[in-house]
Every structure is written in structure tokens, then in C-alpha cells.
Amino acid sequence: MPVMKRALGVVLVSLLLCFFSSAASSSAPRTLRVDYYHTGNSHEEWFSLDRVVLEPLEWPGNLNKAIDESQLGNYLFEVREKGSGKLVYSRGFNSVFGEWKTTEEALHGNRTFSESLRFPSPDTPVEVSLKERDGSGFRGKEVWKTVVEPKDKFVDRSRPPSPGALMELQKMGDPATKVDLLVLGDGYTAAERPKFEKDARRFVEALFSTSPFREHQKDFNVWGLCPAAEESGVSRPSSGVYRRSPVGASYDTFGTERYVLTTENRALRDVASFAPYEFIEILVNGQTYGGGGIFNQYATVAIDNLWAGYVGVHEFGHQFAALADEYYTSDVAYLPSENKTEPWEPNVTALLDPANLKWTELVAAGTPVPTPWDKEEFDRFERDIQRQRKELRAAGKPEEEMDELFRKQREKEDAMLGSEKYAGEVGAFEGANYETKGYYRSEVDCIMFTRHKTFCAVCRRAIERVIGMYAG
Known about the structure:
The chain is α+β, with helices and mostly antiparallel strands. The chain contains 8 helices and 18 strands. A hairpin with a 5-residue loop joins β3 and β4.
């Protein structure tokens, strides 16, 4: 009898050891982050390592969907096992530097921007390679490489200051099987934390009332973080307002008054590391119209503006699915392209080969390509709106007057574009990508073109493809 008990005990211990060993081997790795500096100008670039950081939380992504085959982004980073060269992770992305280098300023001087690459922490040394898109895509265009040893004593394992409790705004399942979106507040004081939660839920409601996010709401977890600011609001230099907000969001990026970005990447990543995330929407605690979005980096929106629902969803389209701006009458800082090349973004085209239009399967028989529309009348109206907009800003008029101008603008745009012969049809409508000639959008109207309420069919398809890269 004692022998039998001992035998049963050995079997039980063995089973327990097997169970815990299996559990340990199946647990998700931590998140490793490479922070680096991106320096240069319009025609030269340099890269240098800043630090390697082991973030506090586990990797939130699906390890079975680690390789990016989308061909989206101006940049692509790859993580390969140092010994075998096996590709273990990759992602395409855009960067603030990538936008800045197309501005007038980049023709005359250098700037440095902080950037980050995040991936599942490996067990062995890896080579992290950064590639930049050229005329042939990413093939062979390596611009920087560094070796990361995850066990190196200089990997920063310290815990950043806590930004406060993590809010569970929408929990649909295991982060590894969902798209994980972090809604991050900037410019909220500690006393305004309840306001942030209301604002965050308002943004979430706007996002998931818009197709195709509405149909895929169950594929998303949404988290909230709100680091306390010393002062309410963020910087707006054109109005003489300066704030040291926790993640550094500011209006007037690249001299464009409505463009809100942050160049404080280090601070942003340290704060965000307290949430399981793949995408970030920064809610700016302010009323003045504005926002911004960088593919696979973050999006921003001034949440107290009357048009925050539209701006938040529009900018999230940039960040989430690499959607290009389809408008072309608003002022931007970017210089026009010298040569019309086919954009890699899924929703605009140079139409260099109409017979092989990138969304040709969505074009109904009988729809002409390029597709006619009353562009001249629309452009006259938009030029007048931009004139009035500049006058209101120059005179320092209250935001309510700008809101009223935008309301009249959308009312007129809806009437004009909705009456077009090919309204609601997929084709190729000239005017897109910040340029009046030579680039085309897929429908006459879309959230990426005006303050419209819906995405076009091509944008919806692009969004669903990205959801499939993360969920399931």
C-alpha cells in the first residue's frame, strides 16, 4: 500500500510539473522596444540607437500573425534570429520624420526625431533591420540595422512612473486575439480624470457607430490611460499657448495650425507601456479644431470640438489602415510631388494604368475611369471656404464661428456631391492626396475627403484587411 501511494505521488508530481512547464512555455513573452533617433533632411537620413526597453506588460499581439505582408507604410522593420536569419516579426509604418522631410524646412536644415520599434521579446539575440520604401517597394532598401541581445544587462528593465489606473473601456477578449486600442488623454489634470473617461467613451461610441468598425466592434479591446497634467490643455503656439503636457501633443505641427502631433515619442511610449496596445488615439483636452494621424504610430483629436467625432475617426483611418487624405484644397505643409508615382496607400491612385486600377474589382460595369464630376464648381466653393477660415483664425474669432462655417460647408458639400451622377459608385475621381491634378480617389465622397459620415467602399475594405491582421 505505501508503495502504491508513493507511485501515485510520483505520477501526480510528474503531471503537475508537466502542467506548469506547459503553462510557462505557452505564456506570452514580454514586449521589447527599441528606441532610436532618426536624423536628417529632405535628401539624407541617419539613425542611432537610443535604448532597448523591456516594457512592463506581456506582448498583446497574436504570435501567429507576426509577419506583415500588407506592403503598407513608408518604412518596414524586420526582426530576424541572429544565427539562422529566420524572420520572426515585421511591421510597416510611417513616421513623423517621414512627413517632415517633405516640408520646406527639410530642404534647408536637419532635425532629429525619436522613434520606436516594438516586438515580442525573443529568447536569443536578434537583428533588427529597418527598410525604407523606394520605387520597387522594400526590396533591398535597408537603411539601418542593430543587434539586440534580450539578456544584455543594459536592456532597460526599470518601471516608468505610473500614468494612473488602466481603464477597461471595452473588453471583448484575450488581447492576443483582438485589436487592442489605447485611448490616451493629454492635457488633463488629475481633477479632470472623470472628464477624460467621459470623453474616451464618447470617442469609442463615435468610432463604433461608423462602418466597418461598427460591424467589427467585437474584434476590439479598448483601454484608457490618463496621465495627470500640471495644467489643463496642450500647446498651441499660434495662439501663444504653451504647455508641458504629459505626452507632448501640440497644435501647429509643421506650421499648420490644425495639425496636432507629438514629437515626444519617448514620453509617449513610456506612458503607453502600461496598457496592452497596438494602436493609440490621443484625446487632446481642448476645443480648437484639430487632429492628426501617422500610420502605425498614433492618431490625435481635440475632443471638445464640435467635429471631434468626425476628426477622431478620420485620423484613426490614417493610423489604423494607412488611408491617405483625399482632400486637396486645405493648406498643408508638404511640398507637391515632382513626379506622379503610384501611391502605396490603398485609397488613392495616380491612375498611371487605368486598365489595372488597384480597386478595379469594385468598379461597376459602365462606370468610366477616370470618372467625371463637377470639380470646377466644388473647387470654387472650397477656395472661398478656405479664405473665410483663414480670416476667422487671423481675427481670433471664437471657435463657435468656425464651427458654424464648417456646418455650412458640410451642408453644401453633401448637397453638391450627393447629387453627382456617380455618387456612391466606385470609380476614379480626380483630386486627392493634397493635389488637385494627377491623383484620384475612389468615390466622389468619403470621410477621408470631406466631413462626410461614412467611409467609401475602398477605405472600408482596407480597414477590414488590417483588422484581419490582428484579430482572430
